[in-house]
Specification:
The complex is a heterodimer of chains A (245) and B (110). With 245 residues, chain A is of the alpha/beta class. Chain A contains seven helices and ten strands. In chain A, helix 1 links the parallel strand 1 and strand 2. Chain A starts with a strand and ends in a 5-residue tail after the last helix. By secondary structure, chain B is α/β, with parallel strands linked by helices. Helices cover 40% and strands 17% of the residues of chain B. Chain B has five helices and five strands, in the order αββαβαβαβα. The radius of gyration of chain B is 12 Å and the shape is globular. Chains A and B meet through loops of A and helix 2 and helix 3 of B.
């Protein structure tokens, strides 16, 4: 079975995310544009994941719970989990590791999270687009230890990517790499993706961008959802291996 | 030293000239934006090779007078637009961060 997926979405919690990007708005936009599997991935925080869980059920889509984490190397890494609680745990660890650079909402944008009724539940005080004091390897190992999957974000982009920060794609437990543009067969690649499976996703910060680079995930005859009602990440990993490289 | 003096002093090209011509409070050199965010001088100059609009976000947070982009890195249009909206000057020079830092250190001190 083919599942249309968008695994990189920002809500109103990201300072650069539009205030209209509530978890429910995202879930319904995904549903109306044919995305069946969606991951919420705010910068360094998962505080909107519980609300996204409820919104995704309501909209009839399947949710993954993530963070676009920024380790010391200043590259953006999608860390995805089956359960919101696990994403929240990583988020709380990252919060403690972020420097005390405070957000200035009027300059940088609001960092608000909401409850299941979409009422504002709180605001994050530290500015979220900073680097947590841990290395890329430590971060990846932590995500794997928590049972999650790791996908370096927009590796072909000239900022906040593995290629911009390190100059190359290092070995790592990457389930896939996210690219902005899938390489076409003939032209030379801007970055050597070293045989890792490739995906694209929206990196949406505004409602109109949700699902703009959604991709097809072939889960074959596997069951996407376990008996506990959560996504089986082993199925996702196996499906990602079938993606173009 | 005023922001407008940077062009002549560094032999740089000004690619975003819509800025308040304020007194420069100091300078910081870094290519890691999270480091610049933590350590750049408020009202100062950031010397960097990071030529994209995220650098302007750091400039906004730190009220930077100017961003000096080294090694003739190409400046994307959206960076110029963002800097114009914020009134932050952008200068581009063929010189590297070491050279620009050395020149500015002589004028502004550490």
């Amino acid at each position: 079975m083919i599942v249309r997926a968008d695994l990189h979405l920002h809500s109103c919690l990201s300072p650069c995310g539009d205030l209209s990007m509530s978890p429910r708005e995202i879930a319904y936009r995904c549903a109306e544009r044919g995305v069946r599997l969606a991951a919420l991935t705010d910068h360094n925080s998962a505080l909107n994941c519980p609300a996204f869980d409820a919104a995704a059920r309501e909209a009839g889509i399947t949710a993954l719970f993530g963070i676009e984490a920024q380790p010391r190397e200043e590259c953006h890494i999608l860390c995805l989990f089956a359960r919101p609680e696990t994403a929240l745990m990583l988020g709380s660890e990252l919060y403690d590791l972020m420097p005390p650079v405070m957000n200035v909402p009027e300059k940088m944008g609001d960092q608000v999270y909401v409850d299941e009724n979409e009422d504002i539940a709180g605001e994050v005080d530290k500015y979220l687009i900073t680097s947590a004091e841990l290395g890329l390897e430590e971060l990846s190992a932590r995500v794997i230890a928590l049972g999650g999957i790791v996908i370096p974000a927009h590796v072909d982009r000239p900022s906040f990517s593995l290629s911009s920060q390190l100059g190359f794609i290092p070995d790592g437990p990457w389930a896939a790499l996210e690219v902005v543009r899938m390489p076409d067969g003939d032209s030379p690649r801007s970055v050597d993706t070293r045989g890792y499976p490739l995906i694209t996703s929206s990196d949406a910060h505004f409602p109109e961008h949700v699902a703009r680079r959604a991709f097809d995930l072939d889960i074959a005859d596997d069951r996407l959802i376990t008996d506990s009602g959560r996504v089986d990440l082993e199925v996702i990993k196996a499906a990602l291996l079938r993606r173009p490289r | 030293m005023k922001t407008s003096e940077l062009q002549g002093f560094l032999g740089a090209v000004c690619v975003q000239d819509s800025f308040a011509n304020k007194e420069i409070a100091g300078a910081y050199t870094s290519d890691l934006l999270s480091d610049a965010m933590a350590n750049a001088v408020d009202g100062g100059v950031l010397i960097t090779i990071q030529a994209h609009k995220n650098t302007v976000a750091v400039g906004t947070l730190k009220d930077l007078a100017a961003i000096v982009v080294c090694n003739n890195r190409p400046i994307p249009d959206d960076m110029i637009e963002a800097a114009r909206a914020e009134g932050i000057a952008i200068f581009v020079t063929k010189e590297n961060q070491f050279t620009v830092s050395g020149k500015l250190w002589q004028r502004l001190g550490s």
